[in-house]
Amino acid sequence: MKKVKTILIAILIIGFVCFAILKVNQFIEIDKCLDNGNKWNYSANKCECENK
Asked: Domain total for the chain?
């Protein structure tokens, strides 16, 4: 029973870490886009370049 609990906790931790990595990567991508003076299209989930 203790082994099952350990495995379940490990799976939950791995799932949380994967979720956090995805969110951090998205934040960094949006931040880079905005830092370059572009606009982030949230519905298309991509950076839109401003023609200057």
From this structure: 1
Q: E strands within the chain?
A: 39-41, 46-48
Q: What element of type H or E holds 27? A: helix 2-35
Name 29's Cβ contacts closer than 8 Å, sequence gap at least 6: 47
* pTM for the whole structure: 0.70
The residues near 41 (Cβ < 8 Å, ≥ 6 apart) are: 47, 48
Integer Cα distance of 38 and 30 in angstroms: 10
- What are the mean pLDDT values of the chain's consecutive 10-residue runs (52 residues total)? 94 97 96 94 91 62
